[in-house]
Amino acid sequence: MKRITDIDLRLLRVFVAVTEAGGYAGAQAQLNISSSTISLHMSDLESRIGFRLCERGRSGFRLTERGALVYQETKRVLATLDDFSGSMANLRNALGGRLLIGMVDCLVTHPDFPLARALRRFNELNHQVHVELTVAPRAELERAVYNRHLHAAIVPRIRKMSGLEARPVLREVHHLYCGRGHPFFDRDLTAVTPDEVTAQPFVMRSYHEEFDGARFPRTSSKATVHNMEGMVVLLLTGAYLGFLPEHYARDWVERGDLRQVDVPGFSYTSQHVLITSPAAKPPPAFSAFLPLIEEALDRRRPARRAPAGTPQASISAKTSRAILKLSSPAGTPQ
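Request: output the structure for the sequence above.
Response:
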């Protein structure tokens, strides 16, 4: 590789994603391309560089000794390019660089979901930022933020996440559901016992396997899904029970295709958080975006009457005005 081209940079970004995901399968959702396409990109990159970067096969994925050195150097080069892009934009009195955000699936129907509102406000700023939104499973997003491939992500808080900071974002109420044709669909559920519920065929969630396994015996687990859209498909067959967030199931419930199995002990509430890496210096684009997320969250809370003589502007509003001032061209009225 005598001179780096745009194609080389794209291939190097694929290489970094594959390395941090631990293989092709883990990188598919992050890159939004198939495993076969990733394989072609990796082969092309190795041909351009002139040596093998990784070993992949039945024994799993691992970097070669030279591949590990290329990974470290690639991270340095890509970080420098992003910093350069941001600096050039800042010299033009506009935010630049990239804003890399992640989220788990099926949050957009939640009434408190702040991301769209925050991005709308962000796009009111004078910026030249490339926004990249990744939808992926929780574990992949945690790993991407920890490895600094993403600036932040919205994920369910399952456990304490070492090396990451977490800000509360929203709460999600989950219920047990069945589809039309299920024995519980038209039944009076007031007489249904928990033992009858746990005896029904159940859809296990691979991303909440420990939680589901503690509530349903393995003998009743007749299917597994890896995302909530798959859960809906199986529930609509009328053959299974499974958990869904209340906001996501609402449309199918209102159409009469799903029914909540309202038996005590089978509903719960989960907390979603915005995770960031405290070890990473936030780029200007993310520093501008974070207050807008907080502003979007503040709008959900009921306004409190300020004491007499207290300025009415909220802290988040002041912060947003400061950002607008910093990111507006010199001489632009505020």
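The two ends are 48 Å apart (CA to CA).
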